[in-house]
Amino acid sequence: MGMVVTLFLAIAAMVIGYAAFGQGGGVAGMVFFGVLLIGAAIRTLQPQKTDA
After folding, report:
1. What pLDDT, on the 0 to 100 scale, is given for residue 52?
2. Is the dihedral of CA 12, 14, 15, 17 positive or negative?
């Protein structure tokens, strides 16, 4: 579920960067992958939840 939220946040950041700020497609793509990479890093660096 966490990666789905990160995906939609990355899409929103990409659309805002492309439409509102007038950045090109390459910059918007880098913003998309940057936000997605940060979300994946946060997801993988969290301590694992174990059933005790």
Report:
1. 63
2. positive
